[in-house]
Every structure is written in structure tokens, then in C-alpha cells.
Design goal:
Blueprint (H helix, E strand, L loop, with lengths): L1 E7 L4 H9 L14 E6 L3 H10 L3 E3 L2 E11 L13 H8 L3 E8 L12 H32 L5 H18 L11 H7 L10 E7 L5 H7 L1 H10 L2 E5 L1 H8 L3 H10 L6 H12 L2 E6 L4 E8 L4 H8 L1 H5 L1 E7 L1 H7 L3 H6 L4 E3 L10 E6 L2
Parallel strand pairs: 1-4, 1-5, 3-9, 5-6, 6-7
Antiparallel strand pairs: 2-4, 8-9, 10-11, 10-12
Bound molecules: guanosine-5'-triphosphate (GTP) and magnesium ion (MG).
Guanosine-5'-triphosphate binds next to helix 1 and helix 9.
């Protein structure tokens, strides 16, 4: 599950990457097209609770992969012509499962001359994504049409052309693939295109570290309205502050945040938002040896969960022993305590796993 950080030049992509991954990539790497990738644990208070109760030898949280770089987009000069984005940019974005679009809402010496306008910047990037898809579609439709005229088009290709034409009309109205309703079959027929405007996206508005709440509200007024209208999740943060906080020792971080009257770093909120945007959730396995969070798609079955742990568990699946997370918490203790308190229920392979469920799979191979 890959999340890509994208945005215009100097919007704070590398700073945000450093914040999310607790890395210290040099900010002056621009122009090098260097790609940075890191794996980060997904903060989950329920997981922490299970760790505390079970005191295991090994702890394995859920993770997501974050990538930034190789995706630098020059700002369109005021009143000027749009620069073409590099092919690398779209190749990188195409490989992502979800995107975080960083837009600058702070005065930036590096982008001298450009006014601060997060809505304009977001729009520029989103439009580029959309036009990249349009280019791909037009090329493909042209080829499909040639085959059609020469009467050598397969039924599969005919269906594909129909879907692509629908998407093209949608894109021509400057609407992203994300907002087009497609049947499951249609989705399947176009999956290999990995349309970049079809990916789940979160907008991170990067505000100055010393901005007052009022100033933040003011500078993000338009982008906030835009996100509401487009049903895009928006998170406001200062990448520079988050980066500094991320370099602190955990205790110092807690103290620092408490002093600022903040219960949770914006970084953690953003990571969780990415996890949700990926369309996944966690279930847990607990015990003395290991407490582990596993990532499965929303609405996955017990069988799918078993398979995620090990293919043998799916092959020899008998039953899933399940304790819902709230029950687990109310019982206190670890698995045995919750089980003795009568919180465990047995489920078959078709059971739809709930976010936070604690599972033990009975199997025989
Ligand atoms: N004041 C302020 N400056 C910031 C903030 N976030 C980033 N910057 C500064 O903006 C500049 C660009 O930040 P980067 O994180 O390098 O941005 P980028 O998007 O990776 O830039 P390129 O890779 O050059 O496209 C740096 O000088 C940062 O220190 C912030 O929250 N507040
Ligand atoms: Mg950078």
C-alpha cells in the first residue's frame, strides 16, 4: 500500500516526508529527482492498548509506505504558460494507491514572485493529473477505433472503448475519474490504466508555523470550500513544525504537544487519514509472543483475514474465534481474560471482519 506525496515545487513535500517518516532528508535535494521511500507505523490507540495488556515479546504495528520526490511540478508562472510535467512524475504517481497533495499556504522565499494561493495551486496539480489521464485515454481510443474500423475489434475491446469514452467525456468536463460512478465490471476493465485522477487523495494545507488560527482560517478559506465541494479530505498542518516534532524523543514530543495544548501531532492524523483513504482497516492478533496489527481491505471476510496471516490458515480454515475490540477492552487483560469473560464468538469463513476485531483462526492442514 503506497502513498505518494505530490505537489508544486517548494510546497513542503520533503519536509512533510521527513515529518511522516521521522527521517532527515536534506531539503535542498530539488532538481535531483531523488525518490525517498519509507515505511511508517500507523498510529492506533487500540493497538497500543492491546500491547499494554498483553505485554508481548514482539510488537508489529500496521504500516504504510510513503514516497516523495521524482514528482516535482513547476508552478505555472503568473499569467504564463503551463510547463509540461515530466513523464517520471506520472510514472511515479501511477504506482501509488493514494496521494497526499501538499499545497503551500506560507510565504516562501523560494517561490519568489508567486502569491500565496493554496486553492490555485491545488487546482493546477489536480488539473494536470486529469489531463494526463485524458492523454492516455485519447491514445488508446484512437488505437481501439482503428481496430474497430478494420473489423478486428474483440468484444472485450468494444466494451473497453465504451467505458473509456464515458471517462473521456467526464474528464473533458474537468471532472476527475475519482468522481465518476463505475460498475465493478467497468472498474475491472480499466484497472490496468491506474488513472492518476482516480486515486484517493488527501490535501495537506501547509501553513506557516507561527500562523494564528485566524490567519489559518483566512488563508485556507477557498481551498477548504473547494475540498468540501469535491469531497476531498483536507488536513491543515505546518510541515516544518511536524518535521521538528518528529525529530524529538517520544517523551519530549508528548511534553511539547501538551504544552501547545495539542493532543495529537497532525502527522498522526494524516497517517491515519492515508490508511483510511487506502480503503483498508486493521484486525489484531494478540498473545504473549506477539501483538500484531494486520491490514485488510474494508469488508474483508474471516477467510481473507486468515489468508493474510498465512495461506495455510486459509486452506485449513475451520473457524475464526473473534473478540470485538470494545469487548476486549471492557474485559480488561489479554485474550484469555476476555475469553473467560465470555466475549469470544465463533465465526465462519464468510464473517465480515470489523475494524479492530481480535482474531484467532482455528485451522487444520
Ligand atoms: N515557514 C515555513 N516554511 C516551510 C514550511 N514547510 C516547508 N517550508 C520551507 O519551504 C521550503 C521548501 O520546503 P521543502 O520541504 O523542501 O519543499 P519541497 O516541496 O520538497 O520542495 P522541492 O523538492 O524543491 O519541490 C524549505 O525552505 C522549507 O524550510 C512551513 O511549514 N513553514
Ligand atoms: Mg523536496
Amino acid at each position: 500500500m503506497k502513498t505518494g506525496i505530490i505537489g508544486l515545487a517548494h510546497s513542503g513535500k520533503t519536509s512533510l516526508y521527513n515529518a511522516l517518516t521521522r527521517s532527515q532528508v536534506n531539503l535542498a535535494t530539488y532538481g535531483s529527482n531523488e525518490v525517498n521511500t519509507g515505511v511508517i507505523p500507523v498510529p492506533d490507540e487500540r493497538f497500543e492498548y492491546a500491547v499494554k495488556q498483553c505485554n508481548p515479546k514482539k510488537i508489529t504495528p500496521a504500516t504504510i509506505e510513503v514516497t516523495e520526490g521524482g514528482a516535482r511540478i513547476e508552478r505555472t508562472p503568473e499569467g504564463g504558460k503551463r510547463d509540461k510535467f515530466g513523464a517520471d512524475f506520472f510514472a511515479n504517481v501511477r504506482n501509488m494507491d493514494a496521494l497526499v497533495l501538499v499545497v503551500a499556504a506560507f510565504e516562501n522565499a523560494l517561490s519568489a514572485g508567486a502569491s500565496v494561493d493554496p486553492a490555485r495551486d491545488a487546482n493546477q496539480v489536480l488539473e494536470e493529473l486529469l489531463l494526463a489521464d485524458l492523454t492516455v485515454i485519447e491514445g488508446r481510443i484512437e488505437r481501439l477505433d482503428k481496430a474497430r474500423l478494420q473489423k478486428r475489434q474483440t468484444p472485450g475491446e468494444a466494451a473497453e472503448q465504451q467505458v473509456l469514452q464515458r471517462i473521456r467525456e467526464h474528464l473533458e468536463k474537468l471532472q476527475p475519474v475519482r468522481t465518476l460512478e463505475l460498475s465493478e465490471e467497468e472498474q475491472r476493465s480499466i484497472r490496468s490504466y491506474a488513472f492518476v485522477s482516480g486515486k484517493p487523495i488527501i490535501i495537506a494545507v501547509n501553513v506557516a508555523e507561527d500562523a494564528t488560527a485566524e490567519a489559518v482560517a483566512d488563508v485556507s478559506k477557498d481551498i477548504s470550500a473547494y475540498c468540501k465541494e469535491q469531497h476531498i479530505q483536507m488536513i491543515t498542518l505546518s510541515a516544518r513544525v511536524e518535521m521538528e516534532v518528529a525529530q524529538m524523543e517520544p517523551d519530549d514530543e508528548r511534553e511539547f504537544l501538551a504544552a501547545m495544548g495539542i493532543t495529537e501531532a497532525a502527522r498522526d492524523r494524516l497517517i491515519r487519514a492515508c490508511y483510511a483513504a487506502l480503503g483498508v482497516m486493521s484486525f489484531f492478533t494478540v498473545g504473549e509472543d506477539e501483538v500484531r496489527a494486520w491490514t485488510i481491505p474494508n469488508n474483508a471476510t474471516a477467510l481473507k483475514a486468515a489468508e493474510t496471516i498465512h495461506s495455510d490458515l486459509a486452506r485449513g480454515f475451520i473457524r475464526a474465534e473473534v473478540i470485538g475490540f470494545d469487548d476486549f477492552r471492557s474485559a480488561g487483560g489479554c485474550w484469555d481474560e476476555a475469553r473467560s469473560a465470555g466475549k469470544m464468538h465463533l465465526e465462519g469463513r464468510e464473517y465480515l471482519v470489523k475494524d479492530g476485531d481480535i482474531l484467532h483462526v482455528r485451522f487444520k492442514v
